Amino acid sequence: MTSNSMAKKQKAGNGAILVACLVFVGGMVGAAYASVPLYRLFCQVTGYNGTTQRVEQYSDTILDTTMRVTFDANTSSGLNWDFKPVNRSVEPKIGETVQISYQATNHSPVPVTGTAVFNVTPMEAGAYFNKVQCFCFTETTLQPGQTLDMPVVFFIDPEIIKAEETRNIKNITLSYTFYPSQGAKPVAGLKDKAEGSAKKL
Description:
Layout: H1 3-46, E1 53-54, E2 68-75, E3 81-85, E4 89-90, E5 98-106, E6 112-121, E7 129-134, E8 140-142, E9 147-156, E10 171-180, H2 186-200
Helix pairs in contact: 1-2
């Protein structure tokens, strides 16, 4: 075998390895992005990591016991919004349906869309904090200078006083953090990059 043939064979082998690596990386990125909604679904079903529950109907049981609920608001560094709760706390009866509001103002000169990530502390209370309505269920778009009141309708499941890990909880904090919505498609982009590299070979 000539040195020229060996060089061509080695180049072809290197090209195949490169394509295989890019495909592998693309698969890993795709799995990572697919795992996000699956992880979120798992958290919503189990209340894991302080994730609240989404329900379609109100509680039919209201206890005489009250629970203090405080509200927290944060924005990421990439979002030029003022975001805060209208009321800092409420003290509803357990099982009572309550509506509170958060307020957001867009200080950017352009329309901005944000997504809210949420949780409650103590984390054990997440499985018993039920939301009927929340701005966090969808993306929120604010026009330049626009201020928007965003309601949250929730109740605390009466079962919270029966579970060993939650029966002594007296205060729950509901926290939101707004992030800029991302419309990137990394898997498709990586696929295009892999195909471009393959063509060069």
